[in-house]
Amino acid sequence: MQPHESISAAIEAANADGRTGLVPFITAGYPEPKDFVDTLRAVAEVGDVVEVGVPFSDPMADGMTIQRSSFIAIEKGVTLKWIFDQLESIKSEISKPIVFMSYLNPLLAFGFDELAQRALETGVCGFIVPDLPYEECGEIREALEAKGIGLIQLVTPATPADRLEMLAKESRGFLYAVTITGITGGDSGLPAGLADYLDQVSRVSPIPVCAGFGIRAAEDVVNVGKHAAGAIVGSALVEVLEQGGDPAEFLSQLGN
Q1: Domain 3-247: which topology?
Q2: I need a labelling partner for 238 at 20 to 30 A (CA). Which of 23, 47, 100, 120 fits?
Q3: Is the Cβ–Cβ distance between 49 and 11 less than 8 Å?
Q4: Choosing from 17, 51, 93, 136, which is the catalytic residue?
């Protein structure tokens, strides 16, 4: 099985068990770099796939919570190399697929070939790059796919039908369905029309669809799970960590 296929398999296994796949997001090294490994272990105990955010100075798709976590992690010395090194130290302990969410600059600076090799060595199965349009992703996609690592594509309610079909076909691991036309971390609830949108995305996608942005409570996971294979929980979990809460307990309460 290719690394990116393990992402799809984990979400499909959750669905076969009667659950919505759960994809928790944490910002690497936040709130304290020394706790990253323990946090990752705890989150991986409950989540089906773990999304690790690579801190970046200008996270344009993210709301204040994740912006703040990125800023503090960078201030405390968290880098892409550091994250890979931490993952390498516990690779044998984490059985769940890991996905990196990163803006393009850190990946470009690291070098795409080395990025793919380090991902393979440390158990990173896929990448989400929100500021990278599909038309400009050829170089990184080629490097990643040479190692079996997936480049996960994003779609939104504003994505035209023909482009939606293309992105679904080209995505690996899962297709990321952004639930809103905005940034992460909102507290206004999931939008009207979400069911029809997710049904449309799920109909055309050959791989699992995971919905993200605005998912904060068990009710949100249930509602998303009626129309998509997985739910991505980001800002709400980062807030729990920020407040010193137990991430595994919070995620368990989202169970379905």
Answers
A1: TIM Barrel (3.20.20)
A2: 120
A3: yes
A4: 51
Residue type, 226: K
Q: pTM value?
A: 0.92
Per residue in 234-249, pLDDT (tens digit) is: 889 999 998 999 999 9
Is-contact 235 66, C-beta < 8 A? yes
What CA–CA distances, in Å, run from 99 to 47, 88, 206?
12, 14, 19
Amino acid code (one letter) for 105: N
17 CB-near residues (< 8 Å, 6+ apart):
none
79, 107 Cβ separation under 8 angstroms: no
Choose the catalytic residue: 62, 93, 136, 187.
Answer: 62
d(CA 131, CA 36): 25
Task: Give catalytic status of residue 51 as yes or no.
Answer: yes
Provide the residue ranges of all domains of the chain, joining segments of one domain with +: 3-247
Give pLDDT, residue 62.
62
Q: Give yes or no for residue 104 having a pLDDT over 50.
A: yes
Give Cβ neighbours of residue 237 (< 8 Å, ≥ 6 apart). Answer: 24, 25, 26, 43, 247, 250, 251
Query: Is 62 one of the catalytic residues?
Result: yes
User: Average pLDDT, stretch 36-58?
Assistant: 94
Residue 60 has a pLDDT of 63
**What pLDDT does 191 receive?**
65
Top-confidence residue, 3 or 72? 3
